[in-house]
Amino acid sequence: MTSIEMPGQPDPTGEVGSGAAQVLKLSGVTKRFPGVVALDDVSFELKPGTVTALVGENGAGKSTLLKVLGGDYQPDEGEIDLGGKIVRFRTPADAHAAGVRVIAQEPDIVPYTSVAENIYVGSLPQRARWLRTDRLYQQAEADLERFGFNSVLRPTEIGINLTAAQRQLIEIMRTMVADASVVAFDEPTSSLSDHEVNLLFVLIRQLKAEGKAIAYVSHRLAEIFEVADEVVVLRDGKTIAQKPIADVDNASLVRLMVGRDLSQVFDHKKSTTDHTMLEVDHLTSHDVRDISLSVNAGEIVALAGLVGAGRSELAGAIVGDLPVISGSVIVDGVKVHLRQPSNGIRAGLGYAPEDRKRDALFMLRSIRDNASLVILKKLSRLRFINFSAEKTQADEYLSRLRVRTPSYDRLVSTLSGGNQQKAVLARWLAARPKVLILDEPTRGIDVGAKAEIYEIMEGLAADGMAILMISSELPEILGIADRIVVMQNGHLTGELNRAEATEEKILALAMADDLAAERQETK
Length: 523
Fold this sequence. Notes:
Elements (H helix, E strand, L loop, with lengths): L23 E10 L2 E11 L3 E6 L6 H8 L7 E6 L2 E3 L4 H6 L2 E4 L11 H5 L13 H15 L16 H15 L3 E5 L7 H16 L3 E5 L3 H7 L2 E6 L2 E7 L5 H9 L17 E10 L5 E6 L3 E5 L6 H8 L5 E8 L2 E3 L4 H7 L1 E4 L3 H5 L6 H5 L8 E2 L2 E2 L1 H14 L16 H15 L3 E5 L7 H16 L3 E5 L3 H7 L2 E6 L2 E7 L5 H8 L1 H11 L1
Parallel strand pairs: 3-8, 3-9, 6-7, 7-8, 13-20, 13-21, 16-19, 19-20
Antiparallel strand pairs: 1-2, 1-4, 4-5, 9-10, 11-12, 11-14, 14-15, 17-18, 21-22
């Protein structure tokens, strides 16, 4: 679809090429890793002009399956039939040449090159002595406008400056300009605003109308019912069912995913006391201004707002990760001097950031190392760590949170998203903070793992911990929070208690500035 010339590549399927409508069938696909059968005799098909949702709990095998489709992994057993021909993708380049594209949840971006170059990476002329960047930018501008992303991406912007949402849109653009016949989306909306999600759904419907076979992975069941025609359910690496989406509802789909009824995901028990554990007093930073709020011991307070409201920036300022201009943070009656995060930790502040892989976890260290990170000083004497005590304490909390893995010595990168989040929580259980700030604690994890995270949060509150939770999911906020504080444009717009809160009231406060400006314009 793009006019930028691309050197010819061998087609690993022989006769099958990109662009044409094709059926992709998996038959008996099995993939093993040491101690784990990630995929166990998986069979289903993706049909032209059809959106097939792939759902299942974290650890069900969805990520492994997409890596098999994308050529990152090769199956140990089973076959992949593309357009009537058995194919074997030895590399992602083989899958691309055959017209199969997987849009990753966390795309790789070349940091010091432009948006345009990132979009066409791998497709740029390889033998040219120079690249006409003016033509490249013109082509990128035309493609961005054609697909509706020109308002959020500029061809000349440098990759390192891009937000998570913009990086995700670049990955989508790479696939759109490649004219693939089979497209798989892996949690494509996890970083997108509502406006960008709507643009994505328009594109998916366009791909569907063009006869593309589409796989769609998401933990957001509302999206599944909006965009999918069929659904494939995976559980413990096995195919449980492939059904038309019209044949299932929310309850039956959850039951297929987790193997049990999840009749009450939220089982909130009020544990709030009258003792103020966290007090933020007129806090101002570069991103937020004049913020005052409090959280009592045993209370769960949700911080709500739209993307860009300043919620994560406020959390960073509270824990000492971002500089404070004025105002104060008081933990259990003691003012905290937040020059760096270690000051906050010593004062009793715990913080689980939104991007656990980038900001919370050491992906090339073991699960146990990650869980014990903030208690090493307590377990050290004369600069020597008591490794026996470290193992005992870390294993205790990892076991308590039911982190599923053959061994805590394995790299934390081998865990599913839900288990990675539990590893972060195990770290703070071991540290026993007075206040725990959780930024999007259930982002990118399935409904079963979400229920476990909610149970953990309820248990921490019952033990007297004060919890400040940032969430973009309104049902989650309404289900677990004792109070809801709403932000917009870096300041607070209102507060609601549990009894009075509704989705409509939260959204009205989250859009208060925009609504006020709109009313002013109509006068």
